[in-house]
Amino acid sequence: MTNHIDEALRALADGDIGRARDAVRDGRTPLAAALAGHLAATRDGSVYDQPAAFEAFIDGGGNVGLYRAVTEALGRVYAEARPSSLLDIGCGDGRALRPALASEHAPASVTLVEPSTALLDAAVRALAGYDVDARHTRVEPFAAGLPAGAVFDVAQSTFALHTLPHEVRDRVLADLVGHVGVLAVVEFDVPDLPHASPEHRRFLAEAYERGLAEYDADRDLVAQGFLMPVLTGQLVPGATRATWEQPASRWAEQVERAGFTEVRVTRLHDYWWSPAFLLTAAGSPAAGSPAAESPAAGSPASGSPTAATPPR
């Protein structure tokens, strides 16, 4: 990490955008150049308001191997659980789900929850021929509004639940535990470092340099439309925050706190940001309930569109 980048990140944490801009003005590394461009044209809004940047991000770099590992892991979950119904929380464009559904024991019925219209429409197109119940909503109202008898054999979320603040995620998991047979969560094992500390700034700088180096022709699009808003959102006071990540051990504790049992964490893939892992856990749906079925379209679970979720 160069002194210029460290000074820029420290200035961002102090809310001094001008000082941060001056620190990286020369743009001598991929991260410095990306930060300089972003800070010169800072705009409001969600990082997911630009689907092209998000798509370029997940189409390239280390995401190719990452999503291959995710697909294989979900296939193993299906092989063990033998589900007939599946809930995908924050499905995005279906990138992780579509290849997983080609596995031998994939479910026949899929419910999608996704707040981005563009990404949900893409997922529905990708799943043409499948029995799909697509919900244009955030997971909070969906989970809170599930009918008493609604049960999903498997509920999965790939790189989406970390977009929920910790206390919101607590409520969502607690709302889901009685409606889920098996929970499968794929996330990143991110170290717990004091906010804006020297260790935190070094971690961010080194990780984002690695990530940006994986892109060539699309680097500017990926940086300005996705990665830089995510980075600055973690530091700038009052900025639109996109992620609330945590170590894998904290994920396990949070899932257990919500009432899930048999929690297992399996490392999946080394990635430029942090290692990816699969967490599986058992829910506690009403066994043998005659009313247990996936909720019908148009039930109170549907909600209103808001910002979408991150790489999934």
TrEMBL record:
Any one GO molecular function term: methyltransferase activity
UniProt KW keywords: Methyltransferase, Transferase, Ubiquinone
UniProt-listed GO biological process terms: methylation
Keyword Transferase part of the UniProt annotation: yes
Coiled coil: none
One Pfam short name: Methyltransf_12
Domain (Methyltransferase type): residue spans on this chain: 87-178
Positions of region (Disordered): 284-312
Name of the protein in its database record: Ubiquinone/menaquinone biosynthesis C-methylase UbiE
Organism per entry: Saccharothrix carnea
Lineage: Bacteria, Bacillati, Actinomycetota, Actinomycetes, Pseudonocardiales
